[in-house]
Amino acid sequence: MGRSDSTTLADLILPGTPDEVRERYLTLAERALARDFGPLEDGVVVLDTETTGLSFKDCSLIEISAARLVGREVVDRFETFVHPSGPIPPEIQRLTGITNADVTDAPSARDAVAALADFVGGAPVLAHNATFDRTFVEAVPGGAEVSNTWIDTLSLSRVALPRLSTHRLADMAEAFGCASVTHRAGDDVDALCGLWRILLTALSDLPSGLLSLLAAMHEEVTWPLRPIFSYLGTMGDAGTAPFSLKAVRAALAREARGEQRADAGELDGTVAPSIEEVEAGFAPDGVVPRMYERAERRPEQIAMAREVTEALATSTHRAIEAGTGVGKSIAYLLPMALFARRNGVTVGVATKTNALTDQLVSHELPALAAALPGGLTFMSLKGYDHYPCLHRLDRAASEELPLAAVPHDGRSDNAVACDMLTAIAVTYAYCCQSPDGDVDALGIRWRYVPRQMLTTTPGECLRTRCPYFPNECPLHGARRRAACSDVVVTNHSLLLRNVVSEGKILPPIRHWVVDEAHGFEAEARRQWAVEVSGEEARAAFELLGGASTGVLHNLMVQVMPLDGSTLLTGLLAKAASCVSRASVCVADLFVAVHELGSVARGDGGYDAVTLWIGEDVRGTSEWQAVSDAGQAAADALDQAVRQLADAGEALSQEAPQLASDLGESARFLRDLFAGIRLICEGADPSYVYSAQLSRSRRRIASEKLVAEKIDVGADLAQRWLPEMESVVFTSATIAVGDDFSHFDHAVGLDTLGPGSHRDVRLESSFDFDSHMSVIVARDLPAPNDRAYLPSLEDLLYDVHVAMGGSVLTLFTNRRDMERAYESLRPRLAAVGLDVACQERGSSPRRLRQRFLEDRELSLMALRSFWEGFDATGDTLRCVVIPKLPFASPNDPLVRERDLREDRAWWKYSLPEAVISVKQAAGRLIRSSTDTGVLVLADSRLTTKGYGRLFIGSLPSGSVTRLEAANVGRFIGMWRAGHE
Q1: What percent of the chain has pLDDT over 70?
Q2: DSSP of 726-752, one letter per residue?
């Protein structure tokens, strides 16, 4: 006794949670029974609603449930169905069990909400994700009368229980033994009633003084969570000791210390595991079968493990294409782990997507650590802006909130400020219970919370001038602990930033696996790009402020009591004047940049166009205006930076911490100055220069000047590969047929000496020939023919009908997608099929979720769905690619390459398109039992010689070339034999 269902709850507690915190979580339910929280439990109303969907604009209430809580007892209830404005969608009926018959004779929304207002009587309302329920209720006339105080228990649970991996009501209710959640409003209310006292008990467990600090910050904001923190902060001995985040972090750091590993580059030599030892790990009694209940012996997986082992033993590099189903992760993790432990060094894995990072850190590595005798230590690392900066956190709690730095979307300043305060509270609570960890999973609404309010950057980090550096800092602490681990998992972007910083970000790792390596070159080009953004410049100037706002204003106020305040105030005022002038000059620059739109060709998107800044553009009068404005902006920025430096130097004598704050704010201006100079002069030949322009003058702030690296491989070969002992690049899609030359050039392997690397292609462990049929529609008009789109629409109709839904169509441009969608949606609806579209402003994450949850839904989507989208089983049974995904001939990089190299299209654009098609085809077969159809609707595959490259690179050899009119009938016959 004394614990909740510890198996369930223990599963929800994040790995690495300190033992003391874990014990408190496990005993919460029992301890809550004996607590009394007075007015926080006296007459509050717990509420939940069910609706016809998620859209506030288009959906309606269908059920409202509420309960009045006194102590642990429900003393009164309110339940009603609501008559909606339209029929309940089938998926909502399945989810909730509420049918159209249930709501036919129900009260109208107006009557139901009026009755709810009478029941609530203005009492505080508790709701899980209260914004959702409140918005639907208050959209009904009279809804605003229900209550002035809505408390979001989802946000509160993130403050109370920051070490849970999920704060879904269903998961928490099950873990703590509360009522079950069944997607009916009444059941959700019962669950939240049971959870309320547990949340209050968990809040009371937070460090002494923290709740009082949270209650006292920014009292000008009407924040619903403030009264809760205020009351709990005065209970018992909760407020007797002042809160010290540094003391709390110091205690956490003491528990997490370890021994730093050696730099493999400084050892006399290293010893790799033998091939026999690694192969034994895959034997029936080996490590790998101990990791999984049903481990299959895969020859391709063992072959890859041998290659990785040999690369480690010979200090050479590999490019390994391993098809879907090979089991790449374990193939490289086992030899890398054995190597790290044997030599006392740290090895690294870099991934492209967070999904793979999470899979490695949450599943593969824990299983490997449990199966390996002696265990294994591992850690994930992300970029600076993923970790809380405690110095900025403290400032956010006490300084003016940066309301001007975020959009409001029609919301009040107070509503946005509440989001900021909740983010501060969640981050404080998380940092009090977490030795390390990032802010990504804290549920912060980043649209309304500027990331720079809670995180820092490599250039802005105060390091030795920060009171938390190094031991108490989550970021630097994570890096120290990573240096004590066997395996570090990070992402491509951080690894590439580490290259630029000459190894100052990551531990000294000399042996890497770069997984999902097909995206490594593109990520390097993004990370090493120099951007001058109108929007970022505006936000930075607003944060820096001047004589009456922002950082400079705050500093002027803070220097008043200091000796020499007259001199300091004068220097700050002079700096503020220079910053103001620089702000105007940079704004003028972007007015000139916008006028470049008249030079750009009209082949961009609806709202935007990208202009290559080549010699022709630099010779125009429009560019001359940009150049002149750029020179004026650079001069003004140079002057502002100098004045800020003078003020900072004088300030450092009287108040070093304030001087650090000023230096932190001024760094962006130095970077802005350097970027403007680089792009306007255009003298560095290693870059291609471009402008990202808006067609609307109202969106000038979104425009950018950009400089991107042309030859990423050359930089990698010069700056990174020579420092590495062994790098294994791997992906399911890096070769064109059997040819690796495009990839080897992209990552610099082609510049290394003979014998320094090897290319290896391993077939998939899945039977693609039997499970995947490829259909080429050979008689469609060419993609640039006016008749193409109508013909494509007819083909898509036949495919959708033949498949019965579950089709993913991957477009290369929005215009074709939207036209096809508008034409097909009513035709498909007439035969009972539903199709969704990746419309402008829609969330790809929500679209993915909707597609995965509805087995009959089809989807038309753009680039973000071409890779990294997994949908096993019947959820996805057909992929259609209307056009081969060649880069636009007007893309700045394409034009620069055409200028500099012969046959550039064949060397770059063609292989990149082939690999993209391979990626898209890979969405279809994600397990050994999946079956599906790939339809290629570009007739160039049969009329152009390069079509053979595309077909030969696909994982399935089952290819059929058909007239478009016969595709639907063929699919019907194929399904009959395979489903």
Answers
A1: 96
A2: EEEEEESS--BTTB-HHHHHHHTGGGS
Average of per-residue pLDDT values in the chain: 90
Paired tokens of 809: 């169509």
What mean pLDDT comes out for the span 349-358?
Answer: 85
Strands of 42-51's sheet, edge to edge?
Answer: 73-81, 61-70, 42-51, 125-127, 150-152
Residue 17 near residue 164, CB atoms below 8 Å: no
C-beta separation of 640 from 669 below 8 A:
yes
Dump pLDDT digits (tens) for 627-648.
999 999 999 999 999 998 888 8
Q: Are 864 and 839 in contact (CB under 8 A)?
A: no
Which of 101-105, 260-264, 605-609 comes out lowest in average pLDDT?
A: 605-609
What order of strands is seen across the sheet that includes strand 530-533?
530-533, 704-709, 687-694, 608-612
Q: What span, in angstroms and rounded, lies between the C-alpha atoms of 933 and 924?
A: 8
Nearest one of 4, 59, 53 to 27, comparing CA atoms = 4
Residue 138's nearest CA partner among 169, 117, 164, 166 is 117
For the beta carbon of residue 358, count every other beta carbon within 10 angstroms.
14
Q: What is the 3-state secondary structure (H, E, C) of 579-597?
A: HHHHHHHHHHHHHHHHHHH
| Residue 547 pLDDT | 80
Half-sphere exposure of 629 (CA within 13 A, CB side): 20
Scanning the structure block, which residue is given the tokens 């990072």? 357
* Mode of pairing for the β-strands spanning 858-861 and 807-810: parallel
Residue 943 is encoded by which pair of tokens?
Answer: 């009329």
For 266, residues 6+ apart whose C-beta sits below 8 A from its C-beta are none
CB-CB contact of 932 with 924 (8 Å): yes
Distance of CA 847 to the CA centre of its chain: 15
pLDDT in tens, 846-902: 788 788 777 888 999 987 777 656 665 567 889 999 999 999 999 999 999 999 999
Pick from 76, 224, 77, 218: nearest CA to 148: 224
pLDDT at 6 over 70: no
What does the pLDDT look like over 684-719, one tens digit per residue?
A: 999 999 999 987 777 776 889 999 999 999 999 999
Alpha helices in 67-209 (DSSP H): 90-96, 100-103, 109-120, 130-138, 153-160, 169-175, 185-204
Q: What is the structure's pLDDT at 845?
A: 73
**8 Å CB contact between 519 and 350:** no
CA distances (Å), origin 269, targets 280, 342, 345, 486, 512: 24, 12, 12, 18, 17
Say how far apart CA 482 and CA 505 lie, in whole Å: 11
Provide CB contacts within 8 A for 412, sequence distance 6+.
none
* Least confident stretch, 209-213, 224-228, 234-238, 791-795: 234-238
Nearest to 77 by CA among 112, 37, 47: 47
Beta strand pairing status for 726-731 and 511-514? Answer: parallel
Res. 240 pLDDT band, cuts 50 70 90: low
> Average pLDDT in the 281-309 region?
91
Strand extents, DSSP E, 871-942:
878-881, 932-936
For the record, the structure tokens of 494 come out as: 């951080």
What is the amino acid identity at position 771? H
Residue 932 to residue 921: CA distance in whole angstroms? 10
Residues 6+ apart with CB under 8 A from 491: 350, 351, 352, 354, 357, 382, 383
Coil, strand or helix at 77: strand
Q: What is the pLDDT of residue 565?
A: 80
Give all strands of the β-sheet with 807-810 in edge-to-edge order. Answer: 835-837, 858-861, 807-810, 878-881, 932-936, 772-777, 959-962
pLDDT of 140 higher than 60: yes
Please determine, for residue 605, whether its predicted confidence score (pLDDT) is greater than 60.
no
Helices (H) and strands (E) in the chain, counts: 42, 23
Q: What mean pLDDT do residues 678-683 have?
A: 96
